[in-house]
């Protein structure tokens, strides 16, 4: 797929699944066949926020995702720390330079050993620009088995600008599509109740609008809070909105 055709596809994509599957195929054509995309809206100076609220997309094997993401190895990954301080594409030669200079911590070395075990040894990271210090996203592009970093640099010299543009456009589109973190999905009724709260309606108003009793509305709101792991309905509205789960068009 040529660049213009890919951008047309990005603009027309309706679901996260559709977008991600095609993006994986496109990056595979450039010899980057192992991708890990991550985005947080809760970054602070000392934390990236609750991992369960991250937007995480990957075609790595489940063992890699479990070890790198769910077990927290990501926090010591050298290229993640680079991405937090920079925007744009970053070559993994940065890690090799740190190794040569003896600048890697013991925890970072463990990350590299884990990556090497899974064939994640050569590639690029693209860090996305954000207008807020609270928001940060990046994607790791690991090269196919058998390619070294010199091979990757040759690919990047020829196609790097297109690859960077494609990943930036994919990121911007992802921000507009509904995402449901594992075990935090909302039912249609829960979403509808939250939407009315977001519109400033009272529980009594919502009961009339939805044709339910106030007790049933309160139950939907309670279950929504539980699903989103928050204490207040206002926080539930905010979290659902951040993951584009509010005001979605669906066939239910």
Explain briefly what this protein structure is.
Helices cover 52% and strands 12% of the residues.
List the helices and strands and how they pair.
Elements: H1 3-12, H2 16-29, E1 32-40, E2 55-58, H3 62-70, H4 78-85, E3 88-91, H5 93-100, H6 106-117, E4 123-128, E5 136-143, H7 149-174, H8 188-198, H9 203-210, H10 214-228, H11 233-242
Helix pairs in contact: 1-7, 2-7, 8-10, 8-11, 9-10, 10-11
Spatial strand sequence of the major β-sheet:
2-1-5-4-3
Structural class: alpha+beta
- Which CATH top level class of the largest domain fits? Alpha Beta
Q: Number of DSSP strands?
A: 5
Number of helices: 11
Total number of distinct structural domains: 2
Beta fraction = 5-15%
Low-confidence stretches: none
What is the helix content?
40-55%
CATH topology of the largest domain: Beta-Lactamase
In the CATH hierarchy, what is the superfamily of the largest domain? Answer: Transcription factor LuxR-like, autoinducer-binding domain
CATH architecture label name of the largest domain = 2-Layer Sandwich
Describe this protein's structure.
The chain folds into 2 domains: 3-174, Transcription factor LuxR-like, autoinducer-binding domain (Beta-Lactamase, 2-Layer Sandwich), CATH 3.30.450; 188-242, Winged helix-like DNA-binding domain superfamily/Winged helix DNA-binding domain (Arc Repressor Mutant, subunit A), CATH 1.10.10. Helix 1 (3-12) packs parallel to helix 7 (149-174). Strand 4 and strand 5 (136-143) form a beta hairpin. The model has no long low-confidence stretch (mean pLDDT 90). The chain contains 11 helices and 5 strands. It has 252 residues and is an alpha+beta fold. It has a 5-stranded antiparallel beta sheet with strand order 2-1-5-4-3, sandwiched between helices.
């Amino acid at each position: 797929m040529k660049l213009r055709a890919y951008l047309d596809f990005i603009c027309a994509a309706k679901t996260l699944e559709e977008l991600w599957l095609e993006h994986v195929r496109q990056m595979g054509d450039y010899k980057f066949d192992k991708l890990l995309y991550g985005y947080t809206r809760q970054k602070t100076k000392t934390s990236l926020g609750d991992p369960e609220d991250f937007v995480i997309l990957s075609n790595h094997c489940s063992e890699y995702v479990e070890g790198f993401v769910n077990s927290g190895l990501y926090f010591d990954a050298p290229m993640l720390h680079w991405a937090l301080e920079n925007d744009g594409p970053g070559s993994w030669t940065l890690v090799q330079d740190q190794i040569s200079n003896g600048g890697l911590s013991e925890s970072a070395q463990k990350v590299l050993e884990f990556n090497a075990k899974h064939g994640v040894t050569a590639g690029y990271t693209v860090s996305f620009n954000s207008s807020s210090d609270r928001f940060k996203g990046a994607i790791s592009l690991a090269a196919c088995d058998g390619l070294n970093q010199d091979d990757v640099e040759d690919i990047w010299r020829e196609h790097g600008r297109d690859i960077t543009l494609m990943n930036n456009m994919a990121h911007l589109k992802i921000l507009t599509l509904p995402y449901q973190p594992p075990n935090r999905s909302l039912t249609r009724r829960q979403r509808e109740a939250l939407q009315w709260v977001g519109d400033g309606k009272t529980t009594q108003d919502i009961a009339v609008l939805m044709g339910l009793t106030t007790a049933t509305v309160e139950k939907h709101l309670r279950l929504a809070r539980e699903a989103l792991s928050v204490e207040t309905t206002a926080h539930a509205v905010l979290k659902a909105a951040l993951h584009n789960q509010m005001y979605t068009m669906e066939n239910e």
